[in-house]
Design brief:
The complex is a heterodimer of chains A (about 350) and B (about 350). Chain A has about 350 residues and is an all-alpha fold. Helices cover about 70% and strands about 0% of the residues of chain A. With about 350 residues, chain B is mostly helical. Chain A: Its main location: membrane.
Chain lengths: ~350, ~350
C-alpha cells in the first residue's frame, strides 16, 4: 500500500472535491492564467506604458516599447503551450507509472530529447524545424523506454525510487553528453546553455506554428486516455479484470506524454519539475479522477510556466532568467519533499 | 579442515592481498609519473625530456622555459592535485555510505562548492585562498543539508542520493543564475564552474590545493582503518570498536574539505570523484584499502582527460567535458548493474 505512490496517497490525502467545487477551481485557474498572460505581456525588462501595450496588441510596432511588447506576445503563447504540455505530460507519466516522482524532466525524457536534437544538428546536419521536432520526439521516446527498462530491472520492478534514480542518473549522464556534443560547435543555435536549461525566450509565431500539430496530437491522445488512466490507477490486475488492455492503455497514454514532452523540448530546451509539481497540486483541487486531473494539470502547468517566465524577467533585471532555472528552484524542494515522505524501503 | 590450516590460509590470503595492493599502488604511481612527464614534454610541440628537466631545475632554456614552465607545468600540477583531491574525497563518501552513487559530484556537494565559489567571485568580488574557504564552508553546509534532509528513521541510501540530486539541481540553477549576472560572461569561465577545467592554470593556484590535501588528506587517511570498518556496516564497525558517529563526522569534514578546495580552483571536474573509487575497487579487489589507489586514479584521470581534451581530439575541450563523457555511460552501467543485482553496490 505504501510503496505504490499515487495509489497510496490516493483518496486519503487528496479528498475528491465535489463537482461544483471542481468547476469553481477550474474557473479560478482559467482566470489566473488570463491574469498571468496579461502580466507576461505587460511586464518585462523594459517598462512599457499601457497605451503602447494596447497599440502593440493591435499589431502596431512603431515605438521601441511597442516592439518589445510584440516580442512578448509569442513568448507568452509559447509559455502557455509549453507549460500546459509539460503539466499534462507529468500527470500522464505519474498515472502510467503510478509513481509520484514521475516527471518528464526527472525521468530523463526531456534531456533525452535535447541530446537527440543536439546530435542530429551536430552530426547529421538536421536543419528544418520539422526534422528537429521529429528527432526530439524520437529521442524522448527512446529515453523513456530506456529509463523505464533500467528502472524496472531486478527485484520489485519499477518502484518509485528506483525509477526516479534511473531517470535522474540518465538525465545527469545525458546532460554531460550534451555539453560534449555541443561544445565544439559554436554555430549551434543558442549555444550550450539553451540545450541544458530550457527557456521560452526567442519564441516566434513561426516556431510555434511548427510545433503546434505535434502538440495538438499529443494533447488529444493524452486527454482521451483519462478514462484508461483511471482504470490503471486501480492496479494492473483489477484494470485487466475490468476489460482494459493494460499494456496498450499504458503505451498509448505514454505516447501522448512523450509527444508533448519531446515537442516542447524541441523548441524550449529541457524544462524540469513542471510536470512534477503541477499534478500533485492539482490533485488537491480536482481529486484523483483523471478526467478532471488532466485538464487541471494542463491549466496549472500553463500558469506555472507563465508565472515562472514573468518572475525570471523581473528578478534578474536588466537581464532575464530562463524559465528552466526558475522551475528548478521552485520544483527541486518539492521533489525533495516527496522523496522524504516516500515511506519505501531502501533499494 | 584443521584449524592451523585455516589460519595459514587466512594469513596467506592476507599476504596476497597486501602484496596486490602494493603492486597496484606502485603501478599507479608509475603510470601517473609517466603521464605527468609526457604531458610536460609533449604538447603542441615536443620538448626533449632533458630540456624539461633543466626547466624544472630552474634553468633558463630558450624556447622551453615558457611552454614548459609557464604553460604545461602549472596545468599538469593543478590537474594532479585536483585529481588527487577528487579521487580521495569521492571514495571516502562512497565507502562511508557504501554506495558508489553517493559520490560528492552526484549528491550536490561539488555543485554546492562550485556555487559558493561563483558567488564569492562574481558577487563578493573575492579571489585567491578566501574563495577556497568559502567553498569549503558551503560544501559542508550542503553535506549537512543533504544528510539532514534524508534523515527520516535512519538514512536510506537511495533517499539520500535522490535528495542530493534534488539539491544539486537547485544549486546548478543558482550557478546558472550567478553566471548570468556576471559582468563579463565568458564561455571559458562558465564551463569551469559547470563542468570543471584547468585552463589558464597558474602555479600560485596550486597552493590552496596543496594545503587542502595536506590538512584534509592527512585527516582522512588517519581514519583509514575506521573507514575500512565502516564498509562492513555501522553495527559491525561499532562492534569492532569504531566510534561510528565520530568517524563519520571526521570523514565528512575531511572529504568535503578535499572536494571543495579542489572545486574552488578547477570547478567541479565532472565525475572524477565518482569514477575513481569504482576503478580502484576493480583493480584492488573487493577487500583492499581504496583511498590511496583511488586518489592516484583520480589524478591520472584528470591529467589524461585534460591532455586528451587539448590535443587528442578535434577542437579543444575543458577536462570536465572529457571526464563527463567518460563518466556518463559508466553511471548508466552502474544503475543497470545495481538494479539487476537487486541491492548492494
Amino acid at each position: 500500500m505504501t510503496a505504490d505512490g499515487v495509489q497510496s496517497s490516493g483518496p486519503g490525502l487528496y479528498p475528491g472535491a465535489s463537482r461544483s467545487g471542481r468547476s469553481l477551481w477550474l474557473v479560478a485557474l482559467i482566470a489566473l492564467l488570463a491574469i498571468l498572460c496579461v502580466l507576461s505581456v505587460a511586464v518585462g525588462t523594459r517598462a512599457v506604458a499601457w497605451p503602447d501595450i494596447v497599440a502593440a496588441l493591435g499589431g502596431q510596432v512603431d515605438s521601441i516599447g511597442q516592439a518589445a511588447v510584440a516580442v512578448r506576445i509569442p513568448r507568452t503563447l509559447l509559455a502557455v503551450l509549453a507549460g500546459a504540455a509539460l503539466g499534462l505530460a507529468g500527470a500522464i507519466m505519474q498515472g502510467v507509472t503510478r509513481n509520484p516522482l514521475a516527471d518528464p524532466g526527472i525521468l530523463g525524457v526531456n534531456m533525452g530529447a535535447s541530446l537527440a536534437v543536439v546530435i542530429g544538428v551536430a552530426w547529421f546536419n538536421i536543419a528544418s524545424a520539422q526534422a528537429y521536432i521529429w528527432v526530439a520526439v524520437l529521442g524522448a521516446g527512446a529515453s523513456a523506454v530506456f529509463v523505464y527498462t533500467i528502472g524496472s530491472l531486478g527485484r520489485g520492478g519499477a518502484t518509485p525510487l528506483k525509477l526516479a534514480l534511473a531517470g535522474a542518473a540518465t538525465s545527469i549522464a545525458f546532460s554531460s553528453l550534451v555539453i560534449a556534443v555541443v561544445l565544439p560547435r559554436s554555430d549551434i543555435a543558442g549555444g550550450i546553455r539553451s540545450w541544458q536549461i530550457g527557456g521560452v525566450g526567442g519564441a516566434t509565431f513561426e516556431r510555434i506554428g511548427h510545433v503546434l500539430p505535434f502538440l495538438a496530437v499529443g494533447f488529444a491522445i493524452s486527454l482521451l486516455s483519462a478514462r484508461k488512466l483511471n482504470s490503471l490507477a486501480l492496479g494492473d490486475d483489477l484494470a485487466a479484470g475490468l476489460g482494459e488492455r493494460v499494456a496498450v492503455a499504458r503505451a498509448v497514454a505514454a505516447l501522448g506524454a512523450i509527444l508533448l514532452a519531446g515537442a516542447t523540448t524541441a523548441i524550449c530546451g529541457p524544462i524540469g519539475f513542471v510536470g512534477l509539481v503541477v499534478p500533485h497540486f492539482c490533485r488537491l483541487l480536482a481529486g484523483v479522477d483523471h478526467r478532471w486531473l488532466l485538464p487541471f494539470s494542463a491549466l496549472g502547468g500553463a500558469c506555472l510556466l507563465t508565472a515562472a517566465d514573468v518572475l525570471g524577467r523581473v528578478i534578474a533585471r536588466p537581464g532575464e532568467l530562463d524559465v528552466g532555472i526558475v522551475t528548478a528552484l521552485v520544483g527541486a524542494p518539492f521533489f525533495i519533499w516527496i522523496v522524504r515522505h516516500q515511506r519505501v524501503r531502501d533499494l | 579442515m584443521a584449524p592451523s590450516h585455516t589460519l595459514s590460509t587466512i594469513v596467506d590470503n592476507r599476504q596476497r592481498r597486501v602484496h596486490r595492493h602494493r603492486l597496484v599502488v606502485a603501478l599507479l604511481l608509475l603510470l601517473l609519473a609517466g603521464v605527468f612527464c609526457l604531458t610536460l614534454s609533449l604538447g603542441q610541440s615536443f620538448t626533449p625530456p632533458g630540456d624539461v628537466l633543466r626547466v624544472l631545475l630552474g634553468e633558463d632554456v630558450a624556447g622551453a622555459s615558457f611552454t614548459v614552465g609557464q604553460l604545461r607545468l602549472p596545468r599538469a600540477l593543478l590537474s594532479v592535485l585536483a585529481g588527487l583531491s577528487f579521487g580521495l574525497g569521492g571514495v571516502a563518501f562512497q565507502i562511508m555510505l557504501r554506495n558508489p552513487l553517493a559520490s560528492p559530484d552526484i549528491i550536490g556537494i561539488s555543485s554546492g562548492a562550485s556555487a559558493a565559489a561563483v558567488f564569492a567571485i562574481v558577487v563578493l568580488s573575492l579571489s585567491g585562498p578566501i574563495v577556497s574557504i568559502v567553498a569549503v564552508v558551503a560544501g559542508l553546509g550542503v553535506a549537512l543539508l543533504v544528510y539532514g534532509l534524508s534523515f527520516t528513521n535512519g538514512v536510506a541510501g537511495t533517499r539520500l542520493i535522490l535528495v542530493g540530486i534534488g539539491v544539486s539541481a537547485m544549486l546548478e540553477s543558482v550557478i546558472a543564475y550567478l553566471l548570468s549576472q556576471a559582468p563579463a560572461w565568458s564561455l571559458q569561465e562558465a564551463m569551469r564552474w559547470l563542468t570543471g577545467s584547468v585552463n589558464g592554470a597558474q602555479l600560485s593556484q596550486s597552493l590552496p590545493l596543496i594545503l587542502g590535501l595536506v590538512v584534509f588528506g592527512a585527516l582522512l587517511l588517519s581514519r583509514g582503518r575506521d573507514l575500512e570498518a565502516l564498509r562492513l556496516g555501522d553495527d559491525t564497525a561499532a562492534g569492532l570498536g569504531v566510534r561510528v558517529a565520530r568517524t563519520r563526522v571526521i570523514v565528512i569534514v575531511a572529504a568535503v574539505g578535499l572536494i571543495a578546495s579542489a572545486t574552488a580552483v578547477t570547478g567541479p571536474i565532472a565525475f572524477v570523484a565518482f569514477l575513481s573509487g569504482p576503478i580502484a575497487a576493480r583493480l584492488i579487489g573487493s577487500n583492499g584499502s581504496l583511498p590511496i589507489p583511488s586518489a592516484l586514479i583520480g589524478a591520472t584521470l584528470v591529467l589524461v582527460g585534460d591532455y586528451a581534451g587539448q590535443f587528442l581530439l578535434p577542437g579543444r575541450y575543458p577536462v570536465g567535458v572529457i571526464t563527463g563523457a567518460l563518466g556518463a555511460p559508466y553511471l548508466i552501467f552502474l544503475i543497470v548493474r545495481v538494479n539487476r543485482a537487486g541491492g548492494s553496490l
